[in-house]
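Thread: Newbie trying to understand structure tokens

Hi all, I'm a second-year student working on a class project, and my supervisor (Dr. K.) asked me to get a predicted structure for one chain before our next meeting. I've only ever worked with sequences, so writing a 3D structure as a token string is new to me. If someone could post the tokens and maybe explain what I'm looking at, I'd be very grateful. Here's the chain:
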Amino acid sequence: MKIILDTNVFVSGVFFSGHPYRILKAWRNGILTLVISEEIFEEYQRVGEILSEQFPMVDLQPILAMVRKRAQIYPVKCLPESVTDDPDDDKFLACALAGKSKIIVSGDKHLLKVNGFREIKIIRPREFVDAYLA
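---
Reply by user tm_fold:
Sure, no problem. This is what the structure looks like when written as tokens:
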């Protein structure tokens, strides 16, 4: 199953326990396929580095190296017009279209609001775990 993790879900899975962690663990164990673009990877890295300053005991680099090596990275074209209320979130939808992923895992209200856009399901981490990993 191909999925996209929004940045907050990704970094929450790296730095904390809970549902985002379970999703990342399923990906590391080969149960899921992570789909990203270069822009998403760069955001993972940037936000992760900010959190690394607050949580220096967490080594971000091994997970970023694993993402670079094992995620499916797609070149993405910008959407012709903004879909979400926060145009910065459109990169996740564009990546889903490029990578033919039908699921974005997110808690972001702007993304959740456009659930169903071009048949892309946008689902909260808890709902994803309950539906696909329970």
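A couple of things are worth pointing out once you decode it. The first helix runs from residue 7 to 15. The helical segments are 7-15, 19-28, 38-54, 61-70, 90-99, 109-112, 125-133. Feel free to ask follow-ups in this thread.
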